[in-house]
Amino acid sequence: MNNYDPIVVCTQVRQPIHFMAKTEIFTNRLISWVLKKVNIIPVDRDKVSIDTLKESLGVLKSNKVLGIFPEGTRVKEGERKKPMDGFVVFALKTHSPIVPVHIRGNYKFRGKVYISFGKPIELSQYYGKKIKQDQMDEISGNIMDKIYLTGQDIRQIN
Question: Whole-prediction pTM value?
Answer without folding.
Answer: 0.84
